[in-house]
Hints:
The structure is a single chain. The chain is an alpha+beta fold and 317 residues long. It folds into 2 domains: 26-227, no CATH class; 230-317, 2-Layer Sandwich (Alpha-Beta Plaits), CATH 3.30.70.120. It is built from 11 helices and 4 strands; from the N terminus they run αααααααααβαββαβ. The longest helix is centred in the N-terminal third of the chain and has 29 residues, at 26-54. The two termini are 33 Å apart. 36% of the residues are buried.
Amino acid sequence: MSDNEKTVEELVVKEEEKIAEDDKGKNAAKKEGLRILGMIFGGLVYSIGMNIFLRPLNLYSGGLMGFAQLFEEMLKDHGYTFTGINISAILYYLMNVPAFVLAYKKMRKRFVIKTIIAVTAVSVFLAFIPIPRAPIMYDRITLTIISGIICGVGTGIILLMGSSDGGTTLIGMLVIHLRKKSSVGQISLFTNIVLYAIMLFMFNTATVIYSLIFAVFSSIATDRIHTQNINSQVTLITKIPDTKPMEVEVMSRLYRGMTEVKGSGSFTGDDVKVYIVFLSRYEVPRLKAIVQSYDPNAFIVETPNVRIDGPFLKKIT
């Protein structure tokens, strides 16, 4: 290892130690508390979309929640009735237990704990938010789309806070964690297609089609909110002479490498450094804050929704 590489490694280690020290105490606890509140709010949004908008239409959600609704209907058909509580919410929670175990083995413990909190919040809200006996409007297609968007936004908020609402969303995050490709919305949509294909043998075609429309709009809304899932390319141009501290902080805080290209101004002839960074859209504001702390006049260009092949680290939490 060269002396220059040793110096960079020492700087990274020192920066990581500084970050670890900064993350201790009240500041870290406050941030985590706000994320948990955000997760609970996302669970409330999702549950409102389900109970207030979707369930009065007698339509079905996708994934484990869809199966929970089916099991609830089967129990009712066999004479089991439940007053004042949505039994599908309890079934949904119980069905998530195997997913919790799998996530515990493959993912971070903090993520699993936050997921359990999120699923608990969703289940409680679903269990006690009353379901109207009649839809709030009689335009079925409009109400289906609205419910899909609301539920997708709620799911996306939970994912944005570094957690999961369980079910196929959690399974999707596990697949991304292992394969580094695809998206939560895409995996949920594929699972729902399989589910609704089975439902074709159980319900009329209209019910299945409207339920599938709900799933499509829910998946789209989820991917729009879940910015960790959107890849971006950021190009940085700076004139500061010593960029090493900035590079070290980007590596230490974001664990992202920077490709450096040396150039010069076409008219001024001034030496400049051009950096290309690939990261998630969720990380872009943090990258901008780091760069601007060293060079307030840095030129920063973001290109979202880029396709990246190769050994790119896709962070999902």
